[in-house]
Predict the 3D structure of the following.
Amino acid sequence: MFDSELGYRPRLGGETYSEQGVLRNDYDDAKRPGVERILFIGDSVTRRGSIVRALRELYGEQAYEYWNGGVESFNTIQEVRYYLRYNRSIQPDHVVLTFHNNDFETTPAVFEHEGRLVVYEPTRRLSEVNPWLLRHSRSYQTWLARPTRGGHGRIVEETAASLVELKRVLDSDSVRFTVLLLPLLAPVEEGMPGSPQ
């Protein structure tokens, strides 16, 4: 759904996402003594849950709870804002952020047009986008898509500032913080450089 700060976000309180912005699970809201509550935040890789399932299989659920706050196509800036607004309320003991190189992308803007949701990726920060013009002007949409001077550098700076803010908040809440830096990988069928085809 449209969100003026995040661009878009999942509908909360439905079948898929809880009111705290995490994928529904069987855990109680009340924390269990002696059990570490781990929250995973990130984009589609996190949302799909492969890392969460692998860790659950490896370590079990006696000493850990595995909460998934992943949202498809979010960038790091959105993930941090989403955490601060929704995920923080589950009071995790440990936050694991998955990070890709594509998490430096700009925040998409979303609006409804003639009964359908339109996703638009401006080259400017969402805070610099006029929602009314975006919704009603094709010229404005075209102008927003033009590369901006220092555009990539600005998104890197904003991403870094978001990570610093998240770390500050997690430290103040006494929450452990781990970043999983995921490499860019070629599909297996393309093979590795220098390998026989």
Q: What stands out?
A: The longest strand covers residues 36-41. Residues 2-179 form a domain with the Rossmann fold fold (CATH 3.40.50).
